[in-house]
Amino acid sequence: MTAAEQRPLAPGAFPEGFVWGTATSAYQIEGAVDADGRGPSIWDVFCRVPGAIARGESGDHACDHYHRWREDVALMSELGVGAYRFSVAWPRVLPEGAGRVEQRGLDFYRRLVDELRARDIEPFVTLYHWDLPQALEDRGGWRVRDTAERFADYAEVVAGALGDRVRYWITLNEPYCSAIAGYAEGRHAPGAREGHGALAAAHHLLLGHGLATERLRGRPGLRVGITLNMSPAVPAGPAPEDAAAARRMDLLVNRQFTDPLLGRRYPEDMAETFGAITDFSFRREGDLEIIGAPLDFLGVNYYYRIHAAAAPYEQPDPARRTAADIGARTVVPEGVRTSGLGWPVEPEGLHQTLTWLARRYPGLPPIYITENGYGDDGTLQDDGRIAYLRDHLAALADAIADGVDVRGWFCWSLLDNFEWARGYAARFGLVHVDYATQARTPKASFHWLRAFLREHAPAGPDQRSGSPSSTR
After folding, report:
1. Choosing a second label site near 303 at 20 to 30 A (CA), which of 25, 281, 403, 406?
2. pLDDT tens digits for 350-369?
3. Which of 102, 122, 156, 174 is catalytic?
4. Rounded to two decimals, what is the model's pTM?
5. Is 471 inside any structural domain?
């Protein structure tokens, strides 16, 4: 154990006004995929592909949050969090991805936000958590520039409906997963395995973020950020080949997103790593200025550290490789704790991520940890989750003490839910969901976190939801 893991956190370890929250996403909890005019998303279609999802499951019903949202907001209030991060389903608002607006979808989110406000819970809205309208995928998806422009239109529609009652806006959740897991690895929707197309998707996602940010800036008082999943990539061994593999992995997962967003530059090793599969023709003059517009905050999702080892390329011909075929594989070091999903449990990786960001990007905006959590089989006495949260909060406190400006932390997730390609077997919730009956049962971690918040956020809802943060 590290010193952070062994040391109990004293009151005052987190700054005044620190935001404590929990998080979900639309497709993972809402269900009701055919209700009130919602159109199909790429996940609705991908879940119908044989073998794509464990046990052939889908998000058709999920946690039925679309009908049980009041019950779920009551659980947040009981937990004692002062903020809730959720996503709006693009196809629930614009069923064809553009054009016709479905007012019933917008009304659902207005009711949800009003209930959160009534309980002194600050809403953090994520505009895109992977559920691209299928109509846009049929026209090229994130491979094409038009989707970035349609995303900006969608952002403006949602801000027009919620901008009078929502201050915090997150454009994208984890563009790495959308671009690489979805367009290179094929394990997420839309299930493609491409080289140039996946890298174009990554670029257009960032461009969509920048274009949407421009639209959101047109409304006074809104604070705009983006959420990235970040994992430090470290060599699995002492060999130079492992060090080189770790650098390529760092590029794939981290720097191809952070450098354009925070440094207004493309990573210097992009051409070396990907030059055989793309000519980067999707880049245009002026894109970096749009992508790198100042952020009010940066969302960071952290789960584990990547230990990278050199590995043979899957495709011998460099020109035929996917963007994920980089001659590297991830390994779990011997003796490292693992979660119920086999992921390494290394709280020091969160500290490493945050201090790396602060060193690499002068003028870094304030950070919110927008996801941090532990997957298991759903047991109610979830001691592994309690240990994970405790140790990562200690590492987070260390990063704050070392000068990193972190303003809040969101636990993933409030509820057990549809966990993408893993279906319903992988459970991250503080609250157990019986999918047959939709009964909610708080787990031991729920009660532990509630007690933790009473000690570390004792000033009530005004402190828990945070004071207005300054912009950069």
Report:
1. 403
2. 999 999 999 999 999 999 99
3. 174
4. 0.96
5. no
